[in-house]
Structures are given as structure tokens and as C-alpha cells.
């Protein structure tokens, strides 16, 4: 009996020691990657949602960790080894060439590989949502952002100026440059709507998961409506900034009210997403009663 107890104790000690080694190794990757994100994408308006997504994703993972530990079994090295090697290569390349997307992706995949080694792929697939949600922390490449934001800036500028012209506001547009009275405004990347699309998608997915559970079909349907809501919100935002510039001057429009307009319209867009969810729920309930 004493021999068996000793063996169990040694086994637990090895597991604990191995777990601590993995945690320290992952921290050595994650901390520099987070510092890079904080200094680059998170410090800009586009990536301001990053820390919120990270905190919410870690909270979701922590909430499910007791069940993951209870159901988990050590994963296959045939999965862990190639994923971890690929993650380390991505991380090394991203850190060496200051490519934050690859560095963050490498740290993320290393975390997935470590979790797979400890709990197995089956359990991770069952509890897929927190892991997928944490992928929002990885910023998209700047080249991709440029390709996506350019047409969106043109679109929101066109809609905003056309709408205000109907109300007699002396506004004109040339590309993404807007002229109102004696002022000239340039539609920046942050006003294109991409940050609202990504931020709204992340918050909407969290809301859906907490209220509806991990229904991927419902998530896809609701997130599909996030894009037009985010674009419409940014059109209104640009219209508000144009009116502030026209009536109160450029200093007022580009000061504190510029930030407040963005926050207010993001909150309004988020309320629209929640309202849309409620409408879909009511419609589905009525369809269920009729059937």
C-alpha cells in the first residue's frame, strides 16, 4: 500500500512539474507577444478592442477549465509536435522581423498545442468557443487591412456626403477627402468601419455564446448582420463629425467629441445587434408555435 501511494505521489509530482514547465515556457512566448501588441495594434484605435477580447476569452477558458480537466486525457504527440514546431517557427519569424501578426499567431498556436498535449484534441473540440474567441486577439496583417479599409472608406464617405447634401449642407467629396465650408477632412482608416466590424463581431459572438450557447449556425447568421450595422454606424459617425466641423469648427470636431462620437455610435451599433437578436428570437418562437 505504501509503495502504491509513493508511486501515485511521484506521478502527480511529475505532472505538476511538467505543467509548470509548460506554463513557464508558454509565458516566455506570450509575454513578449503581448508587449508587442500593446505597443503596436492595441495602441491604435483599430486594435483597441484587443485587451477586452483577451480578458473575455481567458475568463471563458477559466470558466470551462474544471470541465476540461475532468474530461481531458493527454493528447497525441503526433498532433502536438508539428503544431508546436510550426508555432515556434511563426513566432521566431514574427519576432525577428517585427511582424506582430505572426508573433501573436505563433504564441496562440503554441498555447493550443500545449492544451492539446495536456487534455487532448477531443476535449478542445468540444470546448471550441473560448479558443476560437481568443483568436480575435491576433491582429490582421497591415496589407490586408489596407486592402479592406480602402473600399470601405470610399463607401462611407460617399453615403455620408450624399446624405448631408440632401439637407443642404455645403459638403463635397473627392475620394476619401471631404470638403465642408472652408474645412477639409480626411477619412482615416479608423473611420472606415473595419474596427467596428471586428469589435462588434467579437462582442456579438461573446453575447451569443453566453445567451444562446455554442450554436455556430446562429452565430454566423447574427454576425452576418454585423457588417451592415457597423458600416451604417460609421456613416452616421462621419456625418456627425462633418456637422460638428461645419457648425463648431475643426478644433471641436477633432477634439474630445471625436472620441465620444465613436464610442456613442459603437454602443448604438451594439444595441442594434442585441435588438436584432431579440427580433430573431421572437420570430423563431412564433414560427415554433405555428408549427
Rg (C-alpha, Å): 24 Å
The fraction of residues assigned to DSSP E strands is under 5%
Mean pLDDT score: 80
Distance between the termini: 63 Å
* Overall shape: globular
**Largest sheet: spatial strand order:** 1-2-3
Structural class: mainly alpha
Number of domains: 2
Helix residue percentage? over 70%
What are the secondary-structure elements, in order, as H or E?
Answer: HHHHHHHEEEHHHH
Main β sheet profile: 3 strands, antiparallel
Number of strands: 3
- Spans of at least 5 consecutive residues whose pLDDT stays below 50 are 1-15
SS element count, helices? 11
Pick out its properties.
disordered N terminus; 11 helices; 291 residues; three-stranded antiparallel beta sheet
Describe the structure.
The chain is mainly alpha-helical. The chain folds into 2 domains: 2-136, no CATH class; 143-285, no CATH class. Helix content is 78%, strand content 4%. The protein has 11 helices and 3 strands, in the order H-H-H-H-H-H-H-E-E-E-H-H-H-H. It has helices spanning 2-39, 50-71, 77-96, 100-119, 121-126, 128-134, 142-165, 194-212, 216-248, 250-253, 256-290; strands spanning 171-174, 177-180, 183-186. A 3-stranded antiparallel sheet has the order 1-2-3. Strand 1 (171-174) and strand 2 form a beta hairpin. Helix 1 runs antiparallel to helix 4 (100-119), helix 2 packs antiparallel against helix 6 and helix 9 packs antiparallel against helix 11. The relative contact order is 0.08.
Amino acid at each position: 500500500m505504501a509503495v502504491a501511494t509513493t508511486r501515485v505521489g511521484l506521478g502527480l509530482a511529475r505532472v505538476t512539474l511538467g505543467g509548470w514547465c509548460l506554463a513557464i515556457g508558454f509565458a516566455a512566448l506570450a509575454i513578449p507577444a503581448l508587449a508587442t501588441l500593446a505597443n503596436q495594434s492595441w495602441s491604435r484605435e483599430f486594435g483597441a478592442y484587443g485587451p477586452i477580447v483577451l480578458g473575455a476569452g481567458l475568463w471563458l477558458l477559466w470558466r470551462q477549465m474544471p470541465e476540461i480537466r475532468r474530461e481531458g486525457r493527454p493528447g497525441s504527440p503526433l498532433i502536438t509536435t508539428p503544431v508546436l514546431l510550426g508555432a515556434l517557427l511563426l513566432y521566431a519569424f514574427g519576432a525577428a522581423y517585427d511582424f506582430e501578426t505572426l508573433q501573436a499567431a505563433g504564441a496562440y498556436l503554441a498555447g493550443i498545442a500545449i492544451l492539446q498535449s495536456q487534455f487532448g484534441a477531443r476535449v478542445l473540440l468540444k470546448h471550441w468557443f473560448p479558443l476560437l474567441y481568443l483568436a480575435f486577439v491576433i491582429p490582421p496583417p497591415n496589407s490586408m487591412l489596407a486592402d479592406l479599409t480602402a473600399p470601405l472608406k470610399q463607401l462611407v464617405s460617399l453615403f455620408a456626403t450624399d446624405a448631408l447634401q440632401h439637407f443642404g449642407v455645403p459638403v463635397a467629396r473627392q475620394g476619401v477627402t471631404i470638403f465642408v465650408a472652408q474645412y477639409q477632412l480626411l477619412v482615416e482608416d479608423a473611420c472606415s468601419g473595419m474596427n467596428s466590424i471586428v469589435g462588434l463581431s467579437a462582442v456579438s459572438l461573446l453575447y451569443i455564446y453566453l445567451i444562446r450557447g455554442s450554436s455556430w449556425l446562429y452565430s454566423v447568421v447574427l454576425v452576418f448582420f454585423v457588417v451592415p450595422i457597423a458600416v451604417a454606424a460609421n456613416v452616421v459617425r462621419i456625418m456627425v463629425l462633418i456637422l460638428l466641423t461645419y457648425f463648431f469648427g475643426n478644433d471641436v470636431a477633432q477634439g474630445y467629441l471625436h472620441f465620444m462620437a465613436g464610442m456613442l455610435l459603437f454602443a448604438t451599433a451594439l444595441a442594434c445587434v442585441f435588438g436584432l437578436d431579440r427580433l430573431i428570437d421572437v420570430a423563431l418562437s412564433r414560427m415554433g408555435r405555428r408549427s
